[in-house]
Amino acid sequence: MSAKPLCSISVATTPTMTRKIKTLSVNFVACQLFALLMAVWFRIYLHPNKTSPFVRHVVATLLGFYLALFCFGWYSLHFLVYLSFHVFCVSHRYCFIVTLGYLILCQITRVYVFDYGMYSADFTGPMMVITQKITSMVFEIHDGKLKAKFVSMCVVMPSLLEYLSYNCNFMAFIEGTNYQPRYQDNANGKENGKWKQSEPSPQSVVVSKLCTCALSLAIYLSLCKVLPVEHVIDDKFLSSTPIHTQVVYLYLSMLALRPKYYFVWTLADAINNAAGFGFNGYDKDGSPRWDLISNLRILDIEFATSFKLFLDNWNIQTSLWLKRVCYERCPVNPTAATFLLSALWHGVYPGYYMTFVTGIVVTMAARAVRHNIRPYFLVSDTHKRVYDVMTWAATQVAISYTVVPFVLLAVGPSLKFYRSWYFCLHLLCVLLVMALPVKRRRPPKQQDDLQAEHSSTDNNCNQKDKSS
């Protein structure tokens, strides 16, 4: 099989590839439904009040291995190799490099040796999640040893069983300490402003999220064939369609693509909630919240008024991982470094890198506009609403423009799309970055010093309050 230049590789599916994608999709849906049933069983029959953490760890690990074997067959052996990177936990940097390097090697093999373009479901998907888990753990262990000023720290090294359960666990919490019966002030207007909290039931939120899944899947299946993204590079479409219609079609085609991700992530969230995982405390009225590990906020995505707000509400857990292991630790240009790491983590398709490089300049331009232009629209509610409408439209167009290569994957089609737009958004963003000043981000050391200074000031104030 002769190698082809990246710019000439297409992603047209063959009958064999189509059958593989359908098989993987069926396996995925079957596993998710099985996981949903097992999550309910896990929460009811292996409740922390009934079984020990050891039993829950063992069951969660075995279920994770079984689902991996069912979905991916012998490819799941890669997961065992991956889990052996536990020995590299002595150095968080080495573990990060080895883990990410092995993931990239598997992605290169899958893409350029086996099935180019088959990205809807493959064995590297779970490896991407395990990469986040392993690297997060080793960084938290490192921070725990140094008592670094980060939110998440791990003081005690996990045992081998805890480590396997952590990586293979498909849904469950173990010790049950994430919610406890407690009293809450000013809740539900109860007598004396106090209301006793019992262990919350996830039933209603699970049903609600399953309904969201069904609606998302119905929308995606109805629109994906009607509004294909590939149509934006069709020669007839480009030559006969006015530019404003092209912009509207681009937005609608991306809008039709997003429910696929809404379905997958919301279903995974519902499975976790069914097992009792994802509880995030109570609202002021005493209602339980189940959004601790949610991966997206649909309304905040669709009505985002800035590039940052869109990204903050899309693939939330991955964004948090990128922030903790890269953005907060990179001393030089953390924005560019974070986008580059995200591209490496996603895979080796050229379109990924074109999307994330574009994302760098769009993020910088959006930051410059927010710092310099937004204050002029805060003088009244009317001006603020006008600004929100304009920035919503600009954000949706910018997101759609940016992620087209992410969908098309190959260099040739992606460049064709950007050429049809004359690289207008790239040029506009570069001009905005050059013309509008932006306050430089404070280096991490200065941030720590400033935080220590504020902490010292707060302590002094508290001491004065106590003495008075």
Spell out the helices and strands N to C.
HHHHHHEEHHHHHHHHHHHH
Q: How do the strands line up in the largest sheet?
A: 1-2
Q: What is the arithmetic mean of pLDDT?
A: 80
Inertia-based shape: globular
Structural class category:
mainly alpha
Stretches where pLDDT is under 50 for at least 5 consecutive residues are 1-13, 181-196, 443-468
**Share of helix, binned:** 55-70%
Instruction: Tally the structural domains.
Output: 3
Estimated share of beta-strand residues: under 5%
Strand count, sense and barrel status of the largest sheet are: 2 strands, antiparallel
Q: How many β-strand runs?
A: 2
Termini separation? 82 Å
Given the structure, what is the number of helices?
Answer: 18
Can I get a quick summary?
The chain contains 18 helices and two strands.
Describe the structure in your own words.
The protein has 468 residues and is mainly alpha-helical. It has three domains: 20-168, no CATH class; 201-295, no CATH class; 305-452, no CATH class. It contains 18 helices and two strands. The chain has helices at 15-45, 53-72, 77-83, 92-114, 124-146, 160-168, 203-223, 235-240, 243-274, 298-302, 307-312, 316-327, 334-346, 350-372, 381-408, 411-420, 424-435, 444-467; strands spanning 183-185, 194-196. Strands 1-2 form a two-stranded antiparallel sheet. The radius of gyration is 24 Å and the shape is globular. Residues 1-13, 181-196 and 443-468 have low confidence and may be disordered.
